[in-house]
Amino acid sequence: MDQHTDGATTASIRHDWSRLQVQALFALPFIDLLLRAQAVHRAHHEPNTVQMSTLLSIKTGACPEDCAYCPQSVRYETGLDREELMSVAAVRDSAMRAREAGATRFCMGAAYRSPKPKDLKVIAQMIREVRALGLESCATLGMLTPAQAEELKAAGLDYYNHNLDTSAEFYGEIITTRTYQDRLDTLAAVRAAGMNVCCGGIIGMGETVADRAELLRTLANLPAHPESVPINQLVKVPGTPLAGCADVDPFDFVRTIAVARLLMPRAHVRLSAGREQMSDELQALCFLAGANSIFYGEKLLTTGNPDVAADRDLFARLGLKPEAPGSDAASGETTRVPPGAAAHPALSSTAAAAPTP
Ligand code: SAM
Ligand code: DTB
Ligand code: SF4
Q1: Which of 249, 276, 281, 297 could disulfide-pair with 54, CB 3.0 to 4.6 Å?
Q2: What residues have CB less than 8 Å from 73, skipping those under 6 apart?
Q3: So which residues are the catalytic ones?
Q4: Cα 256 vs. chain centroid, distance in angstroms?
Q5: Which residues pair with 56 in a beta bridge?
Q6: At 324, is the pLDDT very low, low, confident or very high (cuts 50, 70, 90)?
Q7: Which residue among 55, 60, 73, 176 is best mutated to probe the pocket of ligand 3, counting the most ligand atoms within 8 A of its Cβ?
Q8: What's the gap in Å between 70 CA and the centre of ligand 1?
Q9: Is pLDDT at 261 greater than 50 in this prediction?
Q10: pLDDT tens across 20-41, in order?
C-alpha cells in the first residue's frame, strides 16, 4: 500500500506534495483520473450532494488593482456601472431572496484592494444580518490585516474567499499591483482569526498545465487545506486584457477539478465561474470528478450564471441534491467514510491511492 494511503477507502490528508507528483496526476489517462477522484470523493463526502452559495456584489467596479481577468479593475474599459457600497437593508433583502431560492451560503464580494475601516464596520453589520437569516456568511474584500480578519470573525463571518488564482511563477503576468506573498499573508491572517478559508483559482488565462499543478500544490501544501476551493473558468469579458484568451479544452478543466479533489480530499471543490458557458454534460463530468459546490443564482458578481430553473433541472436530471448548511465548516481535515463508500469495484482502495511519480 502506498505510504500516503491509510486505509481501504481513505486517502490521508497530505501537505507534502511535490511538483512531479502533482504533474503526474494531471498526466493520468482521463478515466483513471476521474475514477480515483470519485473514489476519494466518496470516502470523504456524501455522494450526489452539492453545496450551494449565492454571490452578491456589494461594491462594484473602480478597483485600483490591475487583475487582467477582472471587469471591475478601474484600468479597463468594460462598460461596467460602478456602484458604491450597498446598504445593509438591500443586502439583507438580497440574502432573503437567495435563501428562498435554496442557497445555504451567502457570499458578499467587494471590488477593493483592501477594505477601509469605515466600510468594514458596515460590512460587519451585513454579516450579522445574513447570519440572522440562518445563512452561512462568506465575504471577499481583498487584502486584510490580521486585525481586520479578527473584526470580521467577531462579526460572525464563516468563510473568507481570497484566491491565489494561479501559480506563483505566472502571477506576475496577470497582476502587477500586489504579490503572491500578499495573498498568502491574508490567507494566514484569515486562518489565524479562526475563519474557514475559501481559496482557489482561474483556469484559461494562458497558464500552462504546470501552472495549474503549482496552484493546486500550493493550496494543498498550506498548513491546513482550504475548506472551499473554487475552480473558476475564465469569463472572457470584453475590454479586459484576457478577453482574447484561447478556450480551455473542457477535459483539461475537468482534470483540474479532479486533481483538486485528490489533493484536498475534505475540501468542497466548487465548480465556480464559467458554468454559463458549459454544457450540462461538462458540468456532470465536473461533479463526477469531485466538484461538490456551485454558485447558485442568475448572477456571479458582474457576469451571468445559469438561472435557478436551469440548475434545478440539471440537479433533477443528475439526481443531485443540495447540501445542508454547515457540512464542511471546521472540517478539521478528518476522514469520514460514508456507508457504501467505494462499493463499486472501480472505486476501490487501489484507485484511491496517490501515484508515485
Ligand atoms: N477584490 C477581491 C479580490 O480580488 O480578492 C474580491 C473580489 S474578486 C472579483 C474575487 C475573485 O473573482 C478573483 O480572485 C477571481 O478569482 C474571480 N474572478 C474575477 N474576475 C473573473 C473572471 N473574469 N473570470 C473568472 N473569475 C474571475
Ligand atoms: C470565486 O472564486 N469566484 C467568484 C467568487 N469567488 C467571488 C467570483 C467570480 C467572478 C466572475 C466574474 C464576475 O462576475 O465579475
Ligand atoms: Fe479588484 Fe478583485 Fe477584480 Fe482584482 S479581482 S481587480 S482585486 S475586484
Answers
A1: 297
A2: 63, 64, 65, 66, 67, 240
A3: 63, 67, 70, 107, 138, 198, 270
A4: 12
A5: 108
A6: confident
A7: 73
A8: 6
A9: yes
A10: 999 999 999 999 999 999 999 9
